[in-house]
Write a structure and sequence with these properties.
The protein is mainly α. The chain is built from 5 helices and no strands.
Length: 103
């Protein structure tokens, strides 16, 4: 069974992701980089708490600048989502891969 991430923990990730999007949209590279570092730190904490989890790994892929690294992360997340038979997560990851390939 896939470990469930507590809502309060995932809300932190969502808040940080929004911060990255906002910083990027106003063109503030320094703020964006700081927000990226904070997000990855929280993802590290969550991985220590919950173990390897497709949502955590896929989120790393979503916010990784290196295309090849992002693809590798999405592939790892996809394997886990399929292992846990999490169709919703699988669809989200496949959508992320599709978007990555279109850009």
């Amino acid at each position: 069974m896939k470990p469930s991430i507590e809502k309060a923990d995932w809300d932190r990730v969502h808040e940080m992701a929004c911060g990255i999007v906002n910083a990027t949209s106003i063109g503030d590279g320094i703020l964006s980089e700081s927000k990226h570092e904070s997000l990855f730190s929280v993802l590290d904490e969550l991985e220590a708490k919950y173990g390897k989890h497709p949502s955590i790994i896929a989120t790393r892929g979503d916010f990784t600048d290196d295309r090849n690294e992002a693809l590798s992360l999405f592939q790892q997340a996809l394997v886990l989502a399929r292992f846990y038979e999490d169709k919703e997560e699988e669809e989200e990851i496949l959508d992320s891969i599709k978007n990555l390939n279109q850009n």
